[in-house]
Amino acid sequence: MAATTPPKIIFEHEGVFIHSNTEESEDQESLISGFLRIIDKDGETFVEYKPLEDTVDLSNMLCACKDSSSVVEWTQRPHRPLDQQLSCETEWDMVNTVSFKRKVHTNGEGGSNHFNERNKWAFSFNVSELRTVTVKHEGWSYLIFCLRDDATLPAIHFHQGGSQGFLDGLRKSVHLSESPDDKNILVVCTYNKAISQSFENLLDDSNYGLVQKFKKDPYTTTLGGFSKVTNYIFDAFRPSESEYQQRPDEEVADLLGELIPGLEINQQEEPGFEVITRVDLGTRPEVQRREPVMMEDWAKHQDSEGRVSNVPHLKQLIFKGGLCHALRKEAWKFLLSYYPWDSTHEERKNLQKRKTDEYFRMKLQWKSVSEEQEKRNSRLRDYKSLIEKDVNRTDRNNKFYEGLDNPGLILLHDILMTYCMYDFDLGYVQGMSDLLSPILFVMENEVDAFWCFVSFMDHMHENFEEQMQGMKTQLIQLSTLLRLLDLAFWNYLEAQDSGYLYFCFRWLLIRFKRELCFQDVLRLWEVMWTGLPCQNFHLLVCCAILDSEKQKIMDRHYGFNEILKHINELSMKLDIEEILIKSEAIYMQLKNCKDLPHSVSEILGLNTITESSTLETSEYSVLESPQISPRSAHRQDQAYSNGHGLLQETSHNTCKVGFIS
Amino acid sequence: MAAKSSLLKVILLGDGGVGKSSLMNRYVSDKFDAHLFHTIGVEFLNKELEVDGRRVTLQIWDTAGQERFRSLRTPFYRGSDCCLLTFGVDDAQSFLNLGHWRKEFAYYADVKEPDSFPFIILGNKIDVVERQVTTEEVQRWCCDNGGHPYFETSAKDATNVAEAFEEAARRVLALEDRQAHVMPSDVVDLRRKPRSSSRCCL
User: Fold this and answer.
1) Are A452 and A580 part of one and the same domain?
2) Which end of chain B is more exposed for a tag (fewer CB within 10 A), N or C?
3) Considering CB atoms only, which of A247, A397, A505 is closest to B72?
4) Percentage above 90 pLDDT, chain B
């Protein structure tokens, strides 16, 4: 290895500002927008700030300066007395109340001159020269670096969030501790990368219990500099200054954050979190969708006894185009593992008979409960009452469920009641009628719909459980993905107290059922049920939708409430084919990425052992390599699907929980 | 001070299926759909109105009523200025649960004195013929629980809906006025969020 390895960017954040005082008046400031980096050069760590060229514009947040001859000017000094700093306003309120006006530079001759003017603000220093970092909050956060030679650099303002991420990045190289005199000042104690890193490893599965254990463990007391170490750890767990501010939105966000403790840890407390390192994702490839699978395509994949052959190829076709409606009734039974792919007509007939008996046995159980019994069974009574109410307000504008006493309504009711008998612990939870309705609509048969619903519920079960663990897991996973895909947007959401992505709750709970029109729900679900191209594909669907909305959200400076409202109101305005194209493109982009963080590849199931990942890859590329012989493809299918469909197939993935949730 | 439009956060709570979303939609859009989807998650709508010559924006929050969703619903209670406890007059159980809802709200919204907090009780669906809850029963309950005002509403027929929401706004403003008088003007009341007109959206 050569000694001069290329510099490695440990942290990068665009959209930080220096407020430069202009000469004319000290009340007037101009903003120098730039990016802040932590760079590793041959084992030495540097912090550097570089202003952006004007052509890149000050920032998309302010949108005030479009040409190089004008600067954005603050007409109101953002300095506020301390008590006002603790007010309930969000960062964006602050920014909004400050007005910006254009001012033409009278002395500036040309763009280059102006750029030089800006460029003088650039700085770079070795972190070993850093003495203190002062952390201040003025609605937003800003940092002031003071070097060992007592030089103080201009304050760096984080108008778009990200200061915490920067400090986390810095802590990888140096140990920061609060000054005893002023808690806003972080003192660089010793430049001891080795110590801090070894404790980052400890913190990797950071939770409070670990810290407690760590405190009590006598072994650690023998370590030199233990007090520094505990300081280091408790610093990492101390809530940031801004969290003490009394802001209702932030309070709501904090409470939501408490519900999803893993999310908080992921975002702030895990110094070793890989996503801090900026990963070059490369370009997003072009993706084409195909026509839906037709009857004759389906027939071609069946042998004379009714076994489905070359399942990977068939699934790939379904993933790329969905199914024509006439095929759904048959094909969904396979996709949902009600029918094994390798079963014969005969076997399926027997299975159906068995399942019919089983269904009616359970149906009889609730049907035969007398009024007296019901009086003494409050849980059953509650389930029943809510099912009756919800059935009356599920897809009532759909032909299949509209009007009074529609048989569809009775079936919906009976299947949900029977499901309570099938899984009394879970019973009925709101949202389940949404999941059943499309299945019943397609099956047009009570028993088939029930068993297909049971199978779908196997995947969605955790979403509805008492602790809603499935929802929490998914929100954390989604946050991890979004942070990698779009750090700027993720930072924006976090600055708006929306980093826990609560606004995606309905999307995830009922898999976009309320977001898309009925026909599009059918299309999306059959595509998802193929299990292609990766596990948790629905999270990439979320990312695709957010990708299309982020510009609007950031341009309009939406805050906590507005983001929730905006996302809620996307319902029925989304185009499924567009979303699927983008979701698949994001998948391709991530798959092609060489240094995908482990956390992300785990969510998507891309880091499976060589054997299974080969299978997955070959499955995904079946369409592209038609020379693969049907025989070998079939054998392959048997090798991993074992004829049990969706659930079994995922068992080779290391992160099964993620998929089921 | 008087010219500023205040944003008042009002939250609808009550059992599933008593008509919380329908009440909100009737009031904000003057529409009614008997087959409206049940709410998943939380939603809110804004409505501007004038009460006694003062312009206010009501931000009305609507939540999923089922117990299972409690942990994801309760964080949104914070910062509420008024709570509309809703039941269906055709659903005795939903009336019996009012106390539970009141307690849940007071706890999670961190209301120090529930008796002086502006709760309003709404008995919805009075258009339905088979009532399970009588007006007297409710009035007695209101009396025993801090004398909250009670409205019998029908989101379907638009009976008393606007009146109930306007009363909510009036109660909040009256409470604020009272507190403004009690407190010396240079003391910042930390319990109340400041009214910021820039925060109200769309």
Assistant:
1) no
2) N
3) A505
4) 74
pLDDT value of position A311: 96
Inspect the interface and report whether the beta carbons of B40 and A429 lie closer than 8 Å: no
Contacts (Cβ under 8 Å, ≥6 apart) of A550: A486, A489, A492
In a domain, A296, yes or no: no
Across residues B36-52, what is the average pLDDT? 94
Token pair of A215 as six digits: 């405190």
pLDDT digits 0-9 by tens, A288-308: 999 999 999 999 999 999 999
Domain stop point among A418, A433, A464: A464
Distance between CA A102 and CA A361 in Å, rounded?
Answer: 76
- pLDDT at residue B177, as a whole number: 84
Residues A416, A562, single domain; the answer is no
CB contact under 8 A, B40 and A87: no
Q: Give alpha helix (H) positions in A31-98.
A: 82-85, 91-97
Residue type, A394: T
In CATH, what number is assigned to the domain containing residue A473? Answer: 1.10.472.80
Residue of A292, A366, A332 lying closest to A444 (CA atoms): A332
Cβ distance of A565 and B202 shorter than 8 Å: yes
- The CA distance from A430 to A510, in Å, is 10
Last residue of a domain, one of A246, A271, A303: A246
Q: Which of these ranges, A101-110, A301-310, B57-66, B175-184, has the smallest mean pLDDT? A: A101-110
Residues of A in contact with B37 (CB under 8 A): 393-394, 514
- Domain membership flag for residue B112: yes
Residue A327 belongs to some domain of the structure:
no
Q: Is residue A303 part of a domain?
A: no
Task: Render pLDDT for A434-460 as a digit per residue (tens, 0 to 9).
Answer: 999 999 999 999 999 999 999 999 999
A271 falls within a domain: no
Domain tally, chain B: 1
Return the sign of the alpha-carbon dihedral for residues A544, A546, A549, A552.
negative
Would residue B15 count as lying in a domain?
yes
Q: What confidence category does residue B59 fall into, taking pLDDT thresholds of 50, 70 and 90?
A: very high
The boundaries of the domain holding residue A573 are: 284-290+468-660
Q: Which residue pairs from A150-157 have beta carbons closer than 8 angstroms and sit at least 24 positions apart in sequence?
A: A153/A49, A153/A123, A153/A125, A154/A18, A154/A19, A154/A20, A154/A121, A155/A18, A155/A19, A156/A16, A156/A17, A156/A18, A156/A36, A156/A49, A157/A16, A157/A17, A157/A18, A157/A19, A157/A31
Give the domain CATH number at B61: 3.40.50.300
pLDDT score for A626: 40
Task: Spell A120-151 as b/e; 16+ CB within 10 A means b.
Answer: eeebebebeebebbbbbbebbbbbbbbbeeee
Nearest to A97 among B40, B72, B198 (CB): B198
Same-domain status, A493 and A443? no
What local confidence, expressed as pLDDT, does residue A207 receive? 36
Q: Is the peptide bond before A630 cis (omega within 30 degrees of 0)?
A: no
CA distance A87 to chain B (A): 8
Q: Is residue B3 part of a domain?
A: no
Is the pLDDT higher at B152 or at A258? B152
Is A468 in contact with B93 (Cβ distance < 8 A)?
A: no
Residues (pLDDT < 50) of chain A are 1-2, 22-26, 54-112, 191-246, 262-276, 609-619, 621-622, 624-661
Q: Number of folded domains in chain A?
A: 3
Q: How does pLDDT run across A507-556, given as a tens digit for each residue?
A: 999 999 999 999 999 999 999 999 999 999 999 999 999 999 999 999 99
* Closest CA–CA distance from residue A129 to any residue of chain B (Å): 43
Q: DSSP string spanning A471-482? A: HHHHHHHHHHHH
Q: How far, in Å, are A330, A420, A533, A577, A588 from residue A292 at the CA level?
A: 15, 35, 17, 12, 21
pLDDT, position A177: 82
Residue in chain B closest to A559 (alpha carbons) equals B199
